[in-house]
Amino acid sequence: MCGIVGYIGKKEAVTVLLEGLHHLEYRGYDSAGLCVLPSAHSRKRRASVVRSVGKVDALVDLVSKKNVSGFVGIAHTRWATHGRPSVANAHPHSVGNIHVVHNGIIENYQSLREKLIERGCRFRSDTDSEVVAHLIALERVKHDFETSVYRALSKIRGAYALVIVCDDDPDKMIAVKNSSPLVVGVGRDDFIIASDVSAIVQRTKNVLYLNDGEVIVLSRDGEYSVCSLNRLVKRRKPQVIDWSPEQAQKGGYEHFMFKEIFEQPHAVVDALRGRVVISDGLVRLGGLRSVEDRLCQIKRIVIVSCGTSYHAGLVGKYMIEEYAGVSVEVEFASEFRYRKPLVDKHMAVIVISQSGETADTLAAVREAKNKGALTLGIVNAVGSAIARETDAGVYNHAGPEIGVASTKAFTSQLSILVLLTVLLGRGRDMSFVMGQKILTELERIPHLITSILKREKELRVIARAYVKNDAMFFLGRKYHYPIALEGALKIKEIAYVNAQGYASGEMKHGPIALIEDGFPCVFLAPKDSVYEKTLSGMEEVRARGGRIFAVSTVGAKEVSSIADDVFFIPKTLEMLTPLLLVVPLQIFSYHVGVMRGLDVDQPRNLAKSVTVE
Ligand code: AGP
Q1: pLDDT tens-digit profile of 249-259?
Q2: Is 2 a catalytic residue?
């Protein structure tokens, strides 16, 4: 997820661009850049392009040392998806007199890059975005600016929001939206185009939302036209919004955490993008291509991570052992690195980390490498330490996760663990049919999560009944035991409730002593292979006066006669149920935290990335 800003009008573009980037910095902050076209009366004929690593302030410093002036410009703050943070990988990408900023993922960039190199194009970055600039520049040799853009767009696949300018057509700006956000601010005699309204709303409240597959051409004389990708004219009128910049950064949600809970369908889509080959029941993980042979030979896997990422690893264990037949252990990184782990070259150590900078997890990578194990990373932050030090890995592409409590990164991690399960399984004895069945259902998950999110008000009502509880159990069996741990962690982190997650079969071995009248227990009780056992556990709690909130699957009627509160989720494969089960628990914990008047985005004592031991 990156931040894009474009300006075309009568003001100095650089001022508007830098102001806009500051408002978009929450979308990405590892590098930034801008391009301003020379104004007609200036002696300069070439655009000014300035790019820097680090936050927007570094770009501001750099720009202040240069003479950047003009009324048309584009700018970008980056959250790396392909190619680590560097000046060369920062946007805009310029080829000839074409300058491009991009947010999203060009799925077919590898094949395009190879073809462009064969045609003599010289690439100066590791990004997917640069292929767009080359495609347009090549078309520009024979076509006008607009036609060149349309012809280039016909060749790219994936998610993209693009804003493009051209030195020799300086009074025009072209932008296109396809699965990545883009909105246009319509001023009295100028336009600001950006990834979201937070970069626009302090200058104009008139905004024009583009739909997927739409191209807008903005002119410096205040005219604009919107067309489809096949150049059919579309009528599009501006509308008035009343968000503050801060509200806009949160997409209108009250907290980043809630916004990120609602971004989960997109996070799963982006985790799967370009990696699923349904027709063959196969998975393509480009980041593991170099180690696929070793992966096929490994006998054991150890998954090592912390916190929420550790819980994802536990779900991964159940998946990989059941469907790929490989033995998996899961360990806290903070334990792994200090005990004497039995690790050797016949094993793979998989580390999961949203930030890619967690000190304990990084130390575990180094310990595993010392012992000759193959080290793989499932990481969200491109170019982070863990991503760089592991032998290979898979990026989440979930975009920055601002809320300290991890939500969308977790469902993204689970999605990638399903892909890894199929990759390992299909290299062993998983059938084509099973591979296809899992992947087909996995592609339905975003839609199923959306159906849960639409009913979040039911969870707000349920949460109200638990706001005063200072202690709570979360109970689940098999695939749902890690989700019980995750649910307990969420409500600990953001509502400061002393919640314990347990394997529900463990209740009778001690914890049940705590059950008394009204003691709240959250049961994960989807109708699957362990449903009956879970009902028994619920009966045990009920018999002792405990209060039960159960999350079950549509059609599981028995639950309602035992539990005090029930939330139903759609049915899916048992191994995929964790991706759905966790969502109501995230929302439940969020509402309890908000009702308790707490700062759910920045809970006390916590940090988003624990880079110290
Ligand atoms: C999760 O909500 C917490 N913020 C925390 O447990 C986190 O998952 C843990 O610190 C690991 O972080 P990482 O995924 O960035 O390595």
Answers
A1: 888 899 999 99
A2: yes
Assigned token pair, 139: 């078309």
Q: 160 alpha carbon to ligand 1 midpoint, in Å?
A: 29
Q: Which CATH class is domain 2-241?
A: alpha beta
Task: Confirm or reject: Cβ of 257 under 6 Å from ligand 1.
Answer: no
Q: Residue range 169-197: average pLDDT?
A: 94
User: Which atom of ligand 1 has the smallest separation from the CA of 493?
Assistant: 2
Which residues, 6+ apart, have CB-to-CB distance to 205 below 8 Å? Answer: 240, 241, 242
- 35 CA to middle of ligand 1, Å? 37
- CATH class assigned to 249-443: alpha beta
Q: Is the CB of 610 under 6 A from ligand 1?
A: yes
Cis preceding linkage at 92, omega within 30: yes
Structural domain boundaries of the chain? 2-241, 249-443, 451-605
Q: ∠547-403-605 over CA atoms, to 5°? A: 75
The alpha carbon of 110 and the centre of ligand 1 are apart by a number of angstroms equal to: 32
- Which superfamily is assigned to 451-605 in CATH? Glucose-6-phosphate isomerase like protein; domain 1 (3.40.50.10490)
Q: Which residues of 246-257 are buried (b: 16+ CB within 10 A; e: fewer)?
A: ebbbbbeeebbb
DSSP helix/strand/coil, 185: strand
Q: Which atom of ligand 1 is nearest to the CA of 610?
A: 10
> Distance from the CA of 534 to the center of ligand 1, in angstroms?
29
Is residue 608 part of the annotated active site? The answer reads yes
Side-chain-facing half-sphere of 412: CA atoms under 13 Å: 30
- Tens of pLDDT, residue by residue over 555-603, are 999 999 999 999 999 999 999 999 999 999 999 999 999 999 999 998 8
**Beta-ladder partners of 98:** 95, 166
60 lines ligand 1 (CB under 6 A): no
Domains 2-241 and 249-443 share a fold: no
**Would you call 102 helix, strand, or coil by DSSP?**
strand
